[in-house]
Amino acid sequence: MIKLHYPEGMAIFGDNACHDLDFEKYDPNIDRDKPTMFWLYTLDDYKTLANHTGKKYVVWHNADVLLLSGKFSNQINIVRDPSITHVCLNHCLEPELFQLGIYSMHRYIFWSDPGRYKPADILTKDCYMCSHPGRGPEYGEFIFNSLAWKYPEWKFHIFGIEPTLPVYCDNVEYYGWIPEPEMDKITKNFGLCLRYNFHDGFPQVICKALMRRQFTLTRLDYDGLTLNFRDMKELVEKFDEIDFKIENGETNKKMIPKGMINNFDFIK
Question: Are 112 and 204 in contact (CB under 8 A)?
């Protein structure tokens, strides 16, 4: 069984992976020689990787790549070890890592049990996003406030953060941080998940939306799984299309092809 090392800040996803997938949480006292997958977000993560003597796998999510090219650039030699197998969760991360001297392969990974998320029978005119604290603009908080004004019959839900902008519309609701099961219950029939990020991995919230047959709007392309927009004009055009479909009782017809997610064929 593969061990999994992750920082406390990623415990929601790491704990899910250990509970639902074939991983066990890494213990540095007894697992230093065991095949281990690493998530690198802190200096301690890099130190743990450097001290590990067994087979190493590194999975790059999104912000960790930015940290490596900036704050942790002095740790690059640790991850340039040719014995390490590198995997990234988005095509856009491959060239960035390559420029840092790291060859990676792309895989879509959902750090939980996909069977937990079933297709919705009916979708409601509810649009949602999930952000990390302090990163509202990156995730499109301001876009939600604009869309709420344009589409008063919709309700817009923002998870993970408190308001950082004045809220003028009654159809915008902030939840702050709430437990994942609670968010899953609230959003299970929502019609649209929106992701504004220019730089991203494979958002778990987008994967959940796709499994539920909810519509998804993203800046980045995920091999045709999501509807994409390049600017605000395209965003509104795609939103109008989705609004029409939900009004007529449709759900998202796009399905994640079998074997597209959680393909761990790189583990030897």
Answer: yes
- Residues 152 and 240 grouped into a single domain: yes
- Using the Cα atoms of residue 15, residue 17, residue 23 and residue 29 in order, give the sign of their dihedral: negative
Rounded CA gap, 107 and 85, in Å? 12
Residues 7 and 79 in one domain: yes
Query: Per-residue pLDDT tens for 64-87?
Result: 999 999 999 999 999 999 999 999
109-to-21, 95, 133 alpha-carbon distances in Å? 11, 19, 23
Q: What distance in Å separates the CA atoms of residue 266 and residue 246, rounded to the nearest whole number?
A: 39
pTM (predicted TM-score): 0.93
Residue 241: what are its φ and ψ, rounded to 5°?
-60, -45
**In a shared domain, residues 55 and 134:** no
C-alpha distances in Å from residue 191, one per residue of 50, 88, 120, 142, 242: 45, 29, 9, 20, 8
